[in-house]
């Protein structure tokens, strides 16, 4: 089910991207034409918001022509970066990128870490994680890395026990102890906050929590710790494009004091700078 969902999303969304670019009359490969604007694929929140802050406030003075394209899935930004439809993307973590490259034969590399979105457990039915009843259903993201992060969050807080060493590749089959007999509903990451009325709790990625007007620091039952967390969101490009002068300018701006202040002021702890 997980792979089928990914393939379907990739085919549909990539088709939409191709049509969109054609409609704009673009006959150039964004990644190879360094004289044109740098087109960056991004999730709407907070990635595109951060990029648009850079575009509106910092890019002109840095001599950077920046274009932001928003996508709501976790597949198309990478396929578009790989085929050159966009010059970079900003939406994912290093573990997700490594897993995506391995499974899809893509050649995308990290340029710079920008921020962390703490992943959290939310519920419309209980006020504390301990309040989940025996047999409760918990929605989790269905992509490999984010599902692993979700299960690790539950394990770190004593709700389940996982096999040693499974890390972010953990799946429900790696659960060795489940004292509450929790049941897991695997959903595309963007769907998890929308499932809160239908399940007992859901583990939601930070960006989707913000889009759903959830405040991670206030509303979550459990929240990932930022300390020592390897899941920073990063700017990425196709291998070989790291030295593109446009990419270097954007990387510097994304790690600037101005962006750090913007993140702190706008997201009040729901998004944390990684620099």
UniProtKB/TrEMBL annotation:
Its main location: membrane. Residues 1-23 form the signal peptide. It comes from the Bacteria. Keywords: Lipoprotein, Membrane, Palmitate, Signal. It is found in: Membrane. Pfam families: Lipoprotein_9 (PF03180). It is a lipid-anchor. CDD domains: PBP2_lipoprotein_Tp32. Belongs to the nlpA lipoprotein family. This is Lipoprotein. It comes from Streptomyces thinghirensis. The lineage of its organism: Bacteria, Bacillati, Actinomycetota, Actinomycetes, Kitasatosporales.
């Amino acid at each position: 089910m997980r792979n089928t969902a990914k393939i379907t999303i990739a085919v549909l969304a990539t088709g939409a991207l191709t049509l969109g670019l054609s409609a704009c009359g673009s006959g150039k490969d964004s990644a190879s034409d360094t004289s044109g604007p740098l087109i960056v694929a991004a999730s709407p929140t907070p990635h595109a918001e951060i990029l648009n802050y850079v575009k509106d406030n910092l890019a002109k003075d840095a001599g950077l022509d920046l274009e932001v394209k928003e996508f709501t899935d976790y597949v198309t930004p990478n396929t578009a970066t790989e085929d050159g439809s966009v010059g970079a993307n900003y939406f994912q973590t290093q573990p997700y990128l490594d897993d995506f490259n391995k499974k899809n034969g893509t050649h995308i590399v990290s340029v710079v870490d920008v921020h962390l979105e703490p992943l959290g457990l939310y519920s419309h039915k209980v006020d504390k994680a301990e309040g989940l009843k025996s047999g409760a259903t918990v929605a989790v993201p269905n992509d490999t890395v984010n599902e692993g992060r979700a299960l690790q969050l539950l394990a770190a807080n004593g709700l389940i026990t996982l096999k040693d060493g499974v890390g972010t590749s953990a799946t429900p089959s790696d659960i060795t102890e489940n004292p509450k007999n929790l049941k897991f509903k695997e959903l595309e990451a963007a769907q998890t906050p929308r499932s809160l009325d239908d399940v007992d709790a859901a583990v939601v990625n930070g960006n989707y929590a913000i889009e759903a007007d959830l405040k991670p620091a206030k509303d979550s039952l459990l929240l990932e710790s930022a300390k020592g967390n390897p899941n920073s969101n990063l700017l990425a490009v196709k291998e070989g494009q790291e030295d593109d002068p446009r990419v270097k300018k954007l990387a510097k701006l994304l790690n600037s004091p101005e962006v750090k202040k913007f993140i702190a002021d706008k997201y009040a702890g729901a998004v944390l700078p990684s620099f």
